[in-house]
Design a protein that fits this description.
By secondary structure, the protein is an all-alpha fold. It is built from 19 helices and two strands.
Length: 529
């Protein structure tokens, strides 16, 4: 039976029925909820993994610091920083290219091009890592003595350089999986297996008496094992890679990725110039204290990184479909959640900075002010949401390159100016200024280019809730000030979080919030029932 699309009014005139319009609006809302659910589900998985992995890495850092002391930790961190920088070069920026093009080609069912992107990325990054690792191995002693005046650093760099090609394989395999909008294997490989194996191997080799070299060998061996596991996960997610004939779009892939290599390198310099310049200008124990502060402050950005992991392919897909308004709605919802979780973390770090830094040992307490400054920088980073990924995934990678180049040069200048007289405090101020400026600049550019921004009035709810709880505990001198540092942490953190959640509930929950909360509840029930 054919249903009429018209109805008669009281005068007998025929008018179009409104149901199709309402149905269309309902469908749009469903699509919005579906996209938000995808982001919430992926971000929840990623956040859980990063929280657990970050906790393991944090325990690892405390473990190493307690056994080796601040000076040995500082030397180790310089070596890892150099290797991480070399690892960024070896990946050619292809990690971003993988997420973008796998999402695009998979979205239109072009499996042959998906395979081409994956194969070329893994091939180039592995051999680049192998070449750079060999170069580093034979120049390690010169770098250690001539630049950092630390001969023992040479052996550390040599042992770490062995991990470079396998690190490239691991990370690009996991980025390939992210292109399919699947996050759980990144959690399994990078956030769980890697830190657990690293911690266990380091413990065994330290017991065997290898000291700092045991820690380094454990690091390289765990990266090798994690790379094998990541490749296995990739074949599991995309089994067609075994038999499909690949179609290569190498020029397009590199045209997108190479400018982003410069962006990633410069972002890396913004984050780690302070460590390298501290190693050059100041005693090595200051590098150890500073890196403990950096590692802890980065906890504030875990939520942002988790949302970015799944939001990046969604951004690419929506821009490809020209659905800017839907992107704006998701941008606002995601940023509100990032801010809601990150802001109380920052307030807790500020309130309990002395207790947190003392976990590493008494000699680390002197870094508490630098720690608070670095935590504020990461709070700003979280508070602007995924602006960098919106620019990158919308094809504005060249703009990102120029942005980051300017901020990188500013960061180097500020570190050169502030580290010699002020040490770790100067390094923290330099990094904070750089991070704040680059994020505000990207926020402005996203608004000018696409007329979108991440803010709504509902940002006031977490702001008021967090500030109120912070003020109450601060005025009370926080709970049990006479107790030990660990006891104060164990008491004040749950009290703060509970009070914050209660205040948020009192101020009301939005519809978008309910979607995300229901996803988390469902995941929780599946785990425990």
């Amino acid at each position: 039976m054919c249903m009429s699309l018209f109805r008669s009014d009281k005068n007998g005139r025929r008018e179009p029925k409104q149901e199709p319009v309402l149905e269309k609006q309902h469908d749009k809302q469903k699509i919005h909820e579906k996209e938000l659910a995808t982001i919430g589900k992926g971000a929840g998985i990623s956040f859980a993994g990063k929280l657990l992995g970050g906790g393991l890495q944090y325990f690892y850092a405390v473990f190493v610091a307690r056994i080796l002391g601040a000076e040995s930790l500082g030397i180790l961190m310089i070596g890892i920083t150099i290797i991480n920088f070399a690892g960024v070069i070896s990946r050619f920026g292809l990690d971003f290219g993988l997420v973008r093009y796998i999402s695009l080609y998979n979205g239109v069912g072009d499996k042959a091009r998906v395979k081409g992107v994956i194969v070329k990325s893994l091939e180039y990054s592995f051999f680049a890592g192998l070449f750079i690792g060999i170069v580093l191995f034979f120049n390690a002693d010169a770098v250690a003595v001539r630049i950092f005046r630390a001969p023992e650093l040479g052996g550390i760099i040599k042992l770490l350089s062995v991990s470079l090609p396998f690190s490239a394989l691991m990370l690009n395999s996991l980025f390939s999986i992210q292109g399919f909008k699947i996050m759980k294997y990144t959690v399994y490989g990078q956030n769980l297996f890697l830190p657990v194996s690293n911690l266990l191997l380091a413990g065994i080799l330290l017991i065997a008496g290898l000291k700092i070299y045991g820690v380094v060998i454990a690091y390289s061996l765990s990266v090798f094992l994690a790379s094998l596991l990541s490749i296995y996960f990739l074949f599991k997610v995309f089994p067609a890679i075994k038999h499909l004939k690949a179609v290569y779009e190498t020029n397009e892939l590199f045209r997108f990725s190479l400018p982003l290599l410069l962006v990633v390198l410069m972002n890396f310099l913004i984050m780690l110039t302070d460590t390298l310049m501290l190693g050059y200008f100041r005693p090595k124990n200051e590098v150890g204290v500073y890196n403990a502060a950096v590692r802890t402050a980065l906890i504030t950005s875990l939520v942002l990184v988790s949302f970015n992991s799944i939001f990046a392919p969604v951004i690419s897909d929506l821009f490809n479909k020209r659905e800017i308004r839907k992107l704006e709605a998701l941008f606002k919802a995601a940023t509100k959640w990032i801010y809601t979780i990150s802001f109380p973390l920052f307030l807790l770090m500020t309130l309990l900075s002395k207790e947190i830094m003392s976990v590493f040992g008494q000699e680390f307490i002197g870094g508490r002010n630098a720690f608070v400054i670095l935590a504020f920088a990461q709070m700003v980073n979280a508070g602007v949401g995924s602006v960098g990924f919106i620019l990158t995934m919308s094809g504005r990678q060249n703009l990102m390159m120029y942005n980051t180049l300017g901020i990188c040069l500013l960061n180097i200048f500020l570190n050169f100016l502030l580290i010699p007289p002020y040490g770790i405090l100067g390094a923290a101020v330099a990094s904070c200024v750089s991070v704040v400026i680059i994020n505000l600049l990207m926020l402005f550019e996203v608004y000018v280019l696409y007329k979108i921004h991440p803010y709504r009035l509902n940002f006031l709810k977490p702001t008021v809730s967090g500030a109120t709880v912070f003020a109450m505990l601060l005025l009370a001198g926080y709970l049990f000030p006479g107790a030990g540092a660990v006891q104060r942490l164990l008491i004040n953190i749950p009290v703060f979080i509970t009070a914050f959640i209660l205040m948020i509930r009192c101020l009301g929950i939005d519809d978008d919030d309910r979607i995300i909360i229901n996803i988390f509840k469902l995941k929780f029930r599946r785990v425990f029932t």
